[in-house]
User: What shape does this take?
Amino acid sequence: MGDTSKTLAYPADLKYVKTHEYVRINGGEAEIGITAFAADQLGDVTYVELPKPGAKLKNEEKFGVIESVKSVSDLFMPVAGEVVAVNSRLASEPELVNLDCYKEGWMIKVKLSNPSELDLAMSAEDYKKFVVE
Assistant: This one.
């Protein structure tokens, strides 16, 4: 069972979108995963379906599916880009999303098509306010 008394973390160096994905920029690449809030809401993650490297995806396009003991949810692109890497560990260790969504539990890395799309994403402070409402 998730401990709801714990404070969820939202690293200040990341960008966040309303569908609860985060983006970590590293040069021209973006690492994408789901936020601590989303992982907490889902409960124990049991399966993650991700695209193959080479897939070109638009901003807000569905890029995968995440299943938990509670529900099945679509994953949406926070920025447009071409998938350059997929976290293959999630196939056998989907629980990494719950244990460490920002480091070990990342999902995909993409080469950014339009970095200016990040201007529309939320800061950690704005995202914190968004999930409290």
Remarks:
- The domain at 15-115 is CATH 2.40.50.100 (OB fold (Dihydrolipoamide Acetyltransferase, E2P)).
